[in-house]
């Protein structure tokens, strides 16, 4: 419950409300199965009444989500059972005792109920959805009962999944129902046919299930008496305490209803509704439904748990189904909330189909009619005569902007802001992107563009900067960004895959009926074993193809992917994430030549002079600024960066002394290599016995790594002849770091020196990359300013 709502809900009011709400119905005796209700055939497969096995208990514990909220009364998380076999063994023994002795421990029959605000006034407790948290041992026990009953019902084909799609395994009920109802409305409008759709609402459906009714329903489904008695014992004297942030009520006896949050409750409720479904699945009753395909039976009823929709071609037939529903509600003890029901109609007036208001009644009360050109909602989806998405598009735009503005105000790193969009914002939009048929172009123009504009703001990209590369994986210099249009394509693929793989034949037929509107998506399903991976590859290929058309913004990334290994690019990305915001933004902008150096500012018409303000003889391009300015070179800016990287390397290389190496470096505080060479001065020399290792490091511009390497190789080709002392084994190692901190794959040549040591080789590379990036950033910051000769960077 939200904090503000919790504070407004008074403890005394909640206690009184739930006591009345959960009180058993007075005068309710045994519930008998009426004569008009169809009976189930005798079971052909026996119920498994054996005590639960250890493997069965373990499998249930594995399937329970680690993030499931623990009940405050036992304070035991399911994670403990997942990680402790000893506790699982002890629990298994307890469960066997309870199963064989037909007993339920008292502690398992007390739940903690939290309240989730739905809508309207928080002063009214009925405007909250109660969710009960069970003790974890009791949750495992009820899961065993649920699985046993479900297997029994499935084995004997007592479960109907064509009409009732709520809470069944392997059935995406909301998707299948909403897709079929959408198709029916479009079919009726396009073919100028009559259609009546009536939505029915039960008052507190789960909370009104009488416990006597449960026993009757279980017996009606031929569930063994021992299991029925076990469930009866479970609900006998079951209590809950309602809790908010400000109070917890005293225990309240649950005299009726099945508790939302209980593992067993959805199945028990569905079994109650199944008595109705058994009556209306008769072929003679189905014939009064709406026929949308000549080789399928008409569809007359949609059921998802307690959400009901009746579909017919005439008001008379719809009223007949309403009478059946009303009759069943009277027997089961449910109340229809007529004010929450609605009815919608389409009729043929001679030339075209038009919406109209059907006249229908429940319990002699007129059902509210959907106004002309208005919408009704079923299972979270808005339906109307035109099946347009104007309102939904407005909602999506508004919600997305609201989320983006909230993220924009947060004092977070840009990488984390992008992560929030990917992980959180899309989770709030994904349902609507799934169930509504939007235009791909509309999504790109109205949702993608808004996201791109905010990301450009966070990364300080100029307006013309291309963002496509951010969609690549981190191992390819992207950030794994998904735009709304990509999410929309994944959502549509999921919907089509659900229909194509449905266990119900009518859903697979619906897939074929609608294939002409989903050609590209369906091709992925037909031609690939893993359509989602195929779509991911398709999106990536599109990005790479687009980047290949960019002459400048792809230059650095293209070269980096050629000379650096994916593991080192991923390492670089991880370092970037840990950098302060200003350095992260610098690195990301530099990748696509988007830094505000004078050359770019002149191009963007933000400056009158593109020249370097230090040498005044060349344009201040990114290459010139970071590695080619003669004045910067004379001032020692690039030497400072080079020496900072060398000092970082030496911090780790020096640890080789304890492995018998002697270390020489062309830096202060180290023995100088001129002891061995006449004219050459390698950066680092390692000597052990009669072996010598020459290590030469270059910090070059991002696109010049191969050129710089070849120059170094050529320069040191004859270094053996320059040596004052003879060594039997020579090894020359050339390492290239770019100005942005990327390292080429040749860094692996250095690993042979560290192979049999416990020196942290990976950390050495990471810190060298970090120092190169930080040093280049400082050079960039001082691009138009006097050099201050800063101390050597030390990040070990």
Automatic annotation (TrEMBL):
Superkingdom, taxonomy of origin: Eukaryota
Pfam families (alphabetical): RVT_1 (PF00078)
SUPFAM superfamilies assigned: DNA/RNA polymerases
UniProt cross-references to InterPro entries, sorted A to Z: DNA/RNA_pol_sf, Rev_trsase/Diguanyl_cyclase, RT_dom
Protein name in UniProt: Uncharacterized protein
